[in-house]
Amino acid sequence: MFTLEPGSFLFEAWQARASLASGVGITLLATLVSILLATLAGLAIGVGLTYGWWWLRGLARLYVDVMRGMPVLVLILFTYYGLALFGINVAALTAGILALSAFAAAHVAETLRGAVQSVPAGQTEAAKAIGLTFPKRLAYVILPQALRRMLPPWINTCLEIAKGTTLLSIIGVVDLLLASQQVMARNYRIIDFYLLATVIYVAINLGIAQLGAVLERRFSHLRY
Fold first, then answer.
1. What are the b/e assignments for 90-122, b being 16+ CB within 10 Å?
2. 9-220 CATH
3. In sequence order, which residues have a C-beta less than 8 Å from that of residue 168 and are 6 or more positions away?
4. How many Å apart are CA 148 and CA 32, to the nearest integer?
5. How far is Cα 124 from Cα 2, in angstroms, rounded to an integer?
6. Which of 92, 100, 105, 161 could bond 41 through an S-S bridge, CB–CB 3.0 to 4.6 Å?
7. Cβ atoms of residues 179 and 22 within 8 Å
């Protein structure tokens, strides 16, 4: 197995290094962009869900409940194929990123809502007492405490996004999984390359988890 003779795993992996590296790059790109978009959209939706007018809270709640109840694979397929029915054609990778972002944004929004509501009411009352306006109360008092509380579940959402990128191969995105399957179709070393893909996915998730641990340590000393 660990020889460079033609037909060996190392030989086939070296021959396929370019396609595998491209697949890893696509997986990382989809993961990072989806995390960024989901976080930004989720924070906005979460604020609307908690502090918006009644109709805005209703729309935010409807969005969160629908997205959380929908299988992410169905959402990916609808984004790619369903939008075309309305004359909106998007590339497979773009459709996948949008679907993952929309799905994860609902989880981020619900996480933020719970974190905001866990902030002691006395904090808000004290901010009001010193004359802070609502935007300032939100920016300087409520969100800093809420964001620290939501870090662990946010990291879990990021891990789910990374694992969810494997579903993008269904719509033809040549990510790590599909690139590995294409290599396997040529050399039939199925177990070897699935194990290699598993190791890479685990490494990506461990990197995200370590980043979360660093952020938790960074903010753990803050007291409000």
1. eebbebbbbbbbbbbbbbbbbbbbebbeebeee
2. 1.10.3720.10
3. 30, 76, 92, 93, 96, 100, 175
4. 21
5. 62
6. 105
7. yes
Cβ partners under 8 Å of residue 30, min gap 6: 93, 96, 97, 100, 165, 168, 173, 175
In sign, the C-alpha dihedral spanning 146, 149, 154, 155 is positive
Contact by Cβ (8 Å): 106, 64: yes
Are 114 and 154 contacting, i.e. CB atoms less than 8 angstroms apart?
Answer: no
The three-class DSSP label of residue 94 is helix
**Is-contact 111 93, C-beta < 8 A?**
no
Q: For residue range 180-216, what is the model confidence (pLDDT) as tens digits?
A: 999 999 888 899 999 999 999 999 999 999 988 888 8
Question: Across the chain, what does the average pLDDT equal?
Answer: 89
Q: Tell me the pTM.
A: 0.90
